[in-house]
UniProtKB/TrEMBL annotation:
Transmembrane segments: none annotated. SUPFAM superfamilies: PH domain-like. Residues 13-120 form the Bacterial Pleckstrin homology domain. The lineage of its organism: Bacteria, Pseudomonadati, Pseudomonadota, Gammaproteobacteria, Pseudomonadales. CDD domains: PH-like_bacteria. Gene3D superfamilies: Bacterial Pleckstrin homology domain (2.30.29.50). This is PH domain-containing protein.
Amino acid sequence: MIDFNNKGFFKLKQNDEYAERVTALLLEGEQVIDAYKAMRDGVVFTNKRIIAVNVQGITGSKKDFTSLPYKNIVAYSVETSGTFDLDSELEIYFSSLGKVKFEFTGKTSMVEISKYISSYLL
């Protein structure tokens, strides 16, 4: 499992590569909203959960998939990008896991992701 307590997560950039890597894990009716990639790891937001992909080992053939369902979120915070600071952040508080922080660079679907999270919270 990804150690979310250690520096949160790397800077994520939009990349559809990880959407393809998790298709076998998706449930019936589950759809990918957006996918992001850091150095080797990635995060995929679906309409039901967040799937964090941790690539392990030298060859990268071993992968850890962590499923974070929206239904377990108790609160979240979004920091959008500005004029000079182009990065945005998403902090999510899960009932049993604690805080998970994602940092994004470049284009992100924060509004759409926020809507899905809110639909499970409210």
